[in-house]
Amino acid sequence: MRKVLIANRGEIALRVIRACRELGIASVAVFSDADARAPHVREADEAVRLGPPPSGESYLRGELIIAAAQAAGADAIHPGYGFLSEREWFARAVRDAGLIWIGPPAEAIAAMGSKTAARTLAVAHDVPVVPGTTTPLRDAAEAQGVAAEYGYPVLLKAAAGGGGKGMRVVREPAEMAAALEAAQREAMNAFGDDAVYVEKYIEGPRHVEIQVLADAHGRCISLGERECSVQRRHQKMIEEAPSPAVSADLRRAMGAAAVRVAKAAGYQNAGTCEFLLAADERFYFLEMNTRIQVEHPVTELVTGIDLVQWQLRIAGGERLPFTSSIDPRGWAMECRITSEDASNDFLPSTGRIEYVRIPGGPGVRWDSGVGVGSEVTLFYDPMLAKLIVWAPTRAEAIARMHRALDELTIQGLETSREFHLRVMEDDEFQRGAIDIQWLERRLPSLVGATAPREQVEAAAIAAALLAERDRQRRTPRPANGSPSASAPDAAAALPELQPWARLARQRALRDA
Ligand code: ADP
Using a 6 Å CB cutoff, which residues line ligand 1? Predict the structure, then answer.
């Protein structure tokens, strides 16, 4: 493999470019008009324009991407995550074009593409799934029958689902008909497939997933778990490895289950089996993600294995040199820094990034797809960057993450930074007492009392100016003028903080 086209954008495109460079492989970026000056375009060895900003006219145009790879003389395509990464037809088309697909075989994507098919496969290989059906529901009466058998609440799920779409919790029989209809409609709109099945709704489990690597020579290993319970609307916000709830024995058992599922699907390359882990240590297979995941760096930091490099090496035919499952070393944590305003119900924020201060120091990793001058639009995912830390223990990782978040400054739009700081300060989070409903329960107290950082900065500047004026008032006035007259009247400005916030911003820009 000498040249790889990366069919993605943002931080994951940069991540793959970095892996290519370390392996001596050339990289080709693709971009939409919104990304013409994006960091991934600048960093790659070559770049090819796809089309207008909407994904449907650019990053989802599989045929354009394959043509770009051929024109550039690339011999492989890395899909990243999202976009075309889990489309069976694309994996097949890449292979049919004579290119190497850096991912699992199209057949394995197909086997895991439907949640009901994946459940059936898991059950056949002795891997527990959440109690429920493995075939689509015909009507509400059938769903009520199943729910009566397992007990309410139950969860309706789209077979083709992803990103939490087409899911509905049903707490009593009377809600079933409307919920089923809503789930089917949402599934049809999102996936073009209205198949919906039902499973028991587990109260208060953790989301724990197992990273696997499988080569083309029959070796498949588990790289341990990631804890991804801090979720909002079924979307992960903070991930860590290992999980505070997983013992060495449980890790072995879950790892073995994940490897069984992967082998049964004929899996190759990097993949993830997602499980729900109940308080009684019982675990249930949810689905397999047949791609590299956003949260892969926490596994890299505790195993010392570069997952993206191994994706490339496995696709190139190399054998995995690891003979046994790897035990985690220390603790890693990741915060997804998004352009969302947590104090305003996570309202998406858009704009031009005016200034970035990137955290540094021991154990800090910054995987970002944006820089100063980047325009953040509503065309793509709101994730700007991932802040990842490593430390010997969980408590030290939390302290380090807090320190790194404190260093982080992004100006020009709202970000989730403050929210992440509050989570790191939360005593329940610090104790590891989290489950998938924890964040929704805790959110009001996490974001409620937050003073925006700019107001805090502004108040500090106002206080400093007041102190300075006091000092000058105590000093004898020079003959040629009044020093206190040159200082703004800080006291008058205090009730109205906006101008001070602007001043703080200008100062930060100038100091940079
Ligand atoms: P998607 O593919 O849409 O992301 P998943 O099956 O991975 O759907 O589920 C997404 C999230 O929904 C999980 O991480 C978990 O938080 C929650 N969830 C899924 N199944 C159940 C269940 N049976 N009981 C309770 N929560 C669930």
Answer: 130, 155, 161-165, 199-202, 207, 231, 234, 274, 276, 286-287, 436
Helix then strand then coil, in percent of the chain rounded to 5, is 40, 25, 35
Tokens of 137: 């529901």
Q: Is 204 exposed, middle or buried (0-12, 13-18, 19+ CB in 10 A)?
A: middle
Torsion on CA atoms 287, 290, 291, 293, rounded to nearest 10: 10
Q: Render 240-290 in DSSP notation, one character per residue.
A: EES-TT--HHHHHHHHHHHHHHHHHTT--EEEEEEEEE-TTS-EEEEEEE-
Look-up of token digits 């994507």: 109
User: Ligand 1 center to residue 142 CA distance, Å?
Assistant: 22
Rounded to whole angstroms, the Cα distance separating 214 from 311 reads 9
Q: In the chain, which stretches have pLDDT less than 50?
A: 450, 478-479, 481-497
pTM above the 0.70 mark? yes
According to DSSP, the β-strands at 196-200 and 168-170 are: unpaired
Instruction: Decide yes or no: CATH 3.30.429.10 for domain 206-447.
Output: no
- Yes or no: say if 414 and 349 are a contact pair by the CB < 8 Å rule: yes
In one-letter notation, the amino acid at residue 311 is Q
Which of 502, 501, 468 minimizes the C-alpha distance to 487?
468
The number of the ligand 1 atom at minimal distance from the alpha carbon of 436 is 16
Query: Please, are residues 442 and 428 in contact by the beta-carbon 8 Å criterion?
Result: yes
Domain 131-200 CATH class label? alpha beta
Is 3-102 CATH 3.50.50.60?
no
The CB density around residue 367, as the number of other CB atoms within 10 Å, is 19
Upper half-sphere CA count for residue 401 (Cβ side, 13 Å): 35
- Distance (angstroms) between ligand 1 centre and the Cα of 164 equals 7
Residue range 233-253, pLDDT digits in tens = 889 999 999 999 999 999 999
